[in-house]
Amino acid sequence: MKRFHxxxxxxxxxxxxxxxxxxxxxxxxxxxxxxxKWMLDDPRVNxxxxxxxxxxxxxxxxxxxxxxxxxxxxxxxxxxxxxxVIEQGQTACCYAKSEKSWIDDPAGIAWETFHTTGESTDYxxxxxxxxxxxxxxxxxxSPAPKIAEPACGCSA
Length: 156
Fold this sequence. Notes:
The chain is α+β, with helices and mostly antiparallel strands.
């Protein structure tokens, strides 16, 4: 069963942990110096906060798959939705190892689709929302993630 993902950038991690712990009536399942995450079952959501966003507020939304088969199903839907799909592949981000892809919705909100495969001891390469923007800007300083062709065969 898939899980909805929300990542919010915050200025004050300690204050925000207190707020969301009260709101969810649960303590975070992961706490780091710059990051916290709640894996809630009611509602079924992976809710994360960090001090790593560009500015406070919504950083990105996503869908977390529990299996590779679910991830393939979600990837197919990304291509049906239209737009440029950024296939980040295997990565370490948010203290986890995952396989992920990104797409921006029509309002410009970054959507992450991912399957977590393990834990990581460090935060990783940062928000995929930023990774996707760097890929679109074709940064000369680092290799860009692979940009997938739309499933329909037309140009995006």
